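Structure, all two chains, one model.
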Amino acid sequence: NAGVMQNPRHLVRRRGQEARLRCSPMKGHSHVYWYRQLPEEGLKFMVYLQKENIIDESGMPKERFSAEFPKEGPSILRIQQVVRGDSAAYFCASSVDRGATRNTIYFGEGSWLTVV
Amino acid sequence: QKEVEQDPGPLSVPEGAIVSLNCTYSNSAFQYFMWYRQYSRKGPELLMYTYSSGNKEDGRFTAQVDKSSKYISLFIRDSQPSDSATYLCAMSVEGTSGTYKYIFGTGTRLKVLA
């Protein structure tokens, strides 16, 4: 399966713990996007990264949330000191750098975070 | 005002009906228009992608863009129970250095009754 891979699919954390969500983009894709989806709500943009670069983090909460996309390995969305309001589905999407589909993004299956 | 407006539904139709899903937008800079289908507890799946005004057809699906009215539609012909899902419209605009910004509608929940 050459699609966008996210893990874990489901994650349960107690309040105050840390959550780490991982995303491997599609083969050949160098752009990664993270979105959050709350129940009955749409996709909310969080952050856009290229390898070793944060391009746009305008949707990221100022505290407790961080993201990286290292030169090697998957992109990581990190949530420190989780609170109940962080419970949501987190989706990663990727796109190519150039070519006919450079302006289209493809999603993974999501990571469902539950904070108890 | 939201950049992209989409009726959340739910929309219930009988099997075989023609379904019309719509989005309006306010930013005239949007250049590319997409429709995604999302089943419950799954990731959004790209259905259709268009650039220019007019129609684009793919099987039972037709995407329509009217840039002058800032209005896009997705039509589903001969709807099937398997089409029951949430449909998200999305729009993108090119930013600096070849990067793109994507904005999504809230999604319309569709239920096709057998």
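Chain A has a mean pLDDT of 91.
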